[in-house]
Design a protein that fits this description.
The chain is an alpha/beta fold. It is built from 12 helices and 10 strands. One of its GO terms (molecular function) is ATP binding.
Length: about 350
């Protein structure tokens, strides 16, 4: 009879102890490629969503592999839940889940149920407990209907969700993700962002993610670390703090988000609208600016006067004059009235 094993004994965690700490790590690969993850310490607090941004080859995956205990540094320190993961992985293995960049390397069983249930079965859980853990993991990522499907025939987005379900089967406290949006179409990417944020919000899962997709950072990160070639960690802060400096990102060979670059450029032209990073925030900033601009070009209007509109009822904004803030204001040039549209059959 199979019995449910006890989890490996957990070390007592101090309230102030971070989930992950990586300090000035150096690793040399067999081909003598050297990665020196130094500069700033990489620290992940409990419950945070931490994103590493950097170009290909900067050491993001190397850093993740040290966190997972797959690599041990020649220099420096790595601690996960207070232990060296390369030497004491058995103490924390059920507290950490991972989603690899290439999920085909992670899916090893023929069917979805076989793959997601692999870890609970391998750790010796009772059959009933394996069934429960597998079912809940599949339901959590929304693929319970794929339970008996052959993994090979699933779409890329479905395979990624199956791999994520396998990572969540043991209900980990820390989830490590390496380029999780690689190769996904926009709809699948948005779906995965919503799913990961739901896991964080409802279950308090701490997340560490490596990506070079700057457009998902605002929705996915509490803290951002920026890496450059060779592994140096050059900056960290909130998404708003990091994206406030597009030149820093470009110097790290990272393309800034379109919105961050657009509003930075507007600021250099004298139109200071802040640095919104989402479409909703950008729309609100532009509408607020339009309200101010409307009051400037129509000084006789009261504060409660409606914004000027075209004959079709659309709101009208005059963008050209705002960059000349402080110059003598010129009255708005009147627009000639539009000719009325002809109505079919009207001969009057």
């Amino acid at each position: 009879m199979t019995t449910t094993p006890a989890r490996p004994p957990e070390l007592p965690a101090r309230a102030s102890e971070p989930v992950v700490r990586v300090s000035c790590v150096r690793h040399v690969y067999p081909d003598r490629t050297q990665v020196h993850l130094c500069g700033l310490d990489f620290v992940v607090e409990r419950g945070q969503r931490v994103v590493m941004l950097g170009p290909n080859g900067c050491g993001k995956t190397t850093l993740l592999f040290h966190i997972l205990g797959l690599l041990e540094p020649q220099e420096g320190e790595v601690a996960v839940f207070g232990v060296n993961p390369a030497r004491h992985w058995n103490r924390i293995r059920e507290r950490v889940g991972v989603l690899l960049q290439n999920v085909d390397e992670q899916i090893i069983a023929p069917t979805v149920w076989d793959d997601v249930s692999f870890s609970p079965r391998n750790y010796g859980y009772a059959d009933a407990e394996v069934e429960r853990m597998t079912r809940e993991a599949l339901e959590r990522v929304g693929v319970a209907h794929l339970r008996d499907k052959v993994c090979h025939y699933l779409s890329g987005g479905e395979r990624r969700k199956v791999a994520l379900a396998g990572a969540l089967a043991l209900e980990p406290e820390l989830l490590v993700l390496d380029e999780p949006f690689e190769g996904l179409d926009p709809a699948s990417r948005a779906d995965l962002v919503d799913l990961l944020n739901h896991l964080h919000r409802e279950h308090g899962v701490t997340m560490v993610m490596a990506t070079h997709d700057v457009n998902v950072v605002k929705a996915m990160a509490d803290v951002v670390y920026v890496l450059v070639g060779g592994g140096e960690i050059v900056a960290h802060g909130s998404p708003e703090q990091i994206f406030r400096d597009p030149d820093l990102l470009r110097s790290s060979n990272i393309e800034p988000p379109v919105l961050a670059e657009l509003f930075a450029h507007l600021e250099t032209m004298g139109v200071a609208l802040g640095r919104p990073l989402s479409l909703d925030d950008a729309a609100r900033a532009i509408v607020a600016w339009g309200d101010r601009n409307a009051r400037r070009v129509a000084p006789t209007a009261t504060a409660a006067s409606p914004r000027p509109k075209t004959e079709s009822g659309e709101l009208r904004f005059d963008f050209a004059d705002d960059a000349a803030d402080g110059d003598d204001e010129k009255p708005a040039r009147p627009r000639p009235p539009r000719a009325p549209r002809a109505v079919p059959g009207d001969r009057s």
